[in-house]
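ligand=pyridoxal-5'-phosphate
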Amino acid sequence: MSILSRREKHLGNGQKYFYKKPLHIVKGEDVWLIDDKGKRFLDVYNNVAHVGHANPRVIEAITKQSNALNTNTRYLHENIVKLAERLAVSTQNHLDVAYFCCSGSEANDLAAQIAKAHTKHQGCIVLSNAYHGNTTEIFQLSPEDCPKEHRKDWVKTIPGPRSFLENQSAYIQTLKEEAEDLIDSGYGVACFIADSIFSSDGIYEIPKGFLKSIYREIRSYGGVVIADEVQSGFGRLGEQMWGYQDDSVIPDILTMGKPMGNGHPVSALLTRREMIESLDKAYNGNSYFNTFGGNPVSAAAALSVLDILEEDNLIEQAGEVGSYLKKQLKKTLEENESVVEIRGKGLFLGIELDDPSKTAKAMEDMMHQGVLVGKTGPKNSVIKLRPPMTFKKEHADLLVDTINQCLRVIS
Ligand SMILES: Cc1ncc(COP(=O)(O)O)c(C=O)c1O
């Protein structure tokens, strides 16, 4: 029986395959993925392998710590403390208390619990096509996947950044109306949560003042704000460690995951002590334990990712290569009538096409030509480019050539 038939027989089928004939990847090397036939693909999609697939320094850190000890966080261990300290510094110590978990969903779930305990409100506001995770609570805050008929009435949505760019005062008015609706129905405003590159809403650089205006309104209703940096964090936008820093705001809670351990499952939440204390108070002091979250091996993986970002100057490199890539894409695709807009920042770019079927075809055709990209946006019409941070100009050139060839045929 083929691996595909065996998988279909024994695995849940909630997650879709990327391609009509699913790829069988057996090896990763830096920005390359290699399939079972030995074919090499340039990986322009997988942000989890942040410092490159099979990075030897991450492997060494994991191996060394696995040889010494792995256990849970009810014991003292240097790694978890060091990691919390370094993450706090990355926020200029504005958010200096951490909890560690194993996935972005868990970190966001905990963030929502803290927000509700701290504000004593229940209502949450999210962007209209956001994705924040898969727990019962957070699936509600993920309108991209949670069908409207399943959405609880303590969740309200506001449009993505495009509407703000079109009319700022109308946008803020909509936000106010949704917040007041939550108050009128007795839920109050507990939190607003957004991904700082708005990936599922179509990939947008934060419009100037966007987060600042929303944060101001949410706080005026007694709510707290959560920056979901699961996709945008760890320097991916090429300038600062966290995406929200681009709008000169400070969230009350910051969540992170995916790239944090370069593939090793580790995630975290950063906030202030008073927020954590509110959760403690609500649950009589036993507010949070996570068997695997922040274990010594996960923390070693995350520390090595931080080291590599610094030692190899990868944030600056992502800024340079990302700007180069965006410029080349704009120049090369300028005359292509299918291209609506090229957006994004650093190594997180999107190419919006005029028809989602063209986006799907481009993704499929590019795979056949040896380049892996994704798709996103409310209509799935945006080609999503989000490679490992070790992506260089020569890779950008290969990507631009391949996109150009594929889109020329499709248009
Ligand atoms: C912005 C964002 N937040 C949270 C999550 C959930 O993370 P995880 O899949 O690790 O639970 C995702 C996953 O795609 C995401 O993109």
